[in-house]
Amino acid sequence: MRTEWIAIAVVAVIALYAVIVFNRLVRARNLVREGWSGIDVQLRRRSDLVPNLIEAVKGYAAHERALFDDIAAKRTSALNADSIGGRAAAEAELQASIHKMLAVAEAYPALKASTNFLELQHQLAGLEDQLQLARRYYNGTVRDYNIGIQSFPDVVLARLTGFHEEHFFQTEDSGLPTVSFEARS
């Protein structure tokens, strides 16, 4: 009779531990989804801003049609990407094209002085900051989640219940040039 109680207690402790681990993994997975939602919102806001930027620049640089078409195609590609890695790659390409368009805009002093264009640039900068914050939050939740599902003994329950590794949202930061302070001779 005593061994039966010990066996029941051991099973109860294991079951309780499994419930606690499962709930912790579900919470971590939900935080990852919340983090992705934050990134998605910022990416959509930026994509919604792109047509306005194109129209503002198009009024001054209509001959840059190929660049505008390229940006529109990359915007569509980013919106239709079906994986986090695909979305990150498409967004990096879109961001590079937006930077090219802003560089083209530098050649038009009247455009640079346009309050509409300046407001759009300001909105874009704000969105980039918000996107950076959302990406950091998401990547932090992915890190914590992946640690949770890869750590023993939690990994056993994670595999049995279908938890899988999530991927980080990484884009190539090509925004700032490299500065060198080496003396030239």
Can you characterise this structure?
The protein has 185 residues and is mainly alpha-helical. The chain has one domain (2-160): LemA-like domain (de novo design (two linked rop proteins)). Helix content is 77%, strand content 0%. It is built from six helices and no strands. Helix 1 runs antiparallel to helix 2 and helix 1 runs parallel beside helix 3. It is rod-shaped and about 90 Å long. The chain starts with a helix and ends in a 25-residue tail after the last helix. 22% of the residues are buried.
**N-to-C order of helices and strands:** HHHHHH
Low-confidence stretches: 176-181
Secondary structure tally, helices: 6
Cα-to-Cα separation, first versus last residue: 91 Å
Number of E strands:
0
- Overall 3D geometry? rod-shaped
Mind telling me the CATH class?
Answer: Mainly Alpha
Structural class: mainly alpha
**Biggest sheet architecture:** none
Indicate the mean pLDDT: 87
Summarize the structure.
The chain is an all-alpha fold and 185 residues long.
Keywords:
single chain, 185 residues, mainly alpha, de novo design (two linked rop proteins), rod-shaped
Helix and strand layout, with pairings?
Elements: H1 2-58, H2 65-80, H3 84-105, H4 109-113, H5 115-150, H6 154-160
Helix pairs in contact: 1-2, 1-3, 1-5, 2-3
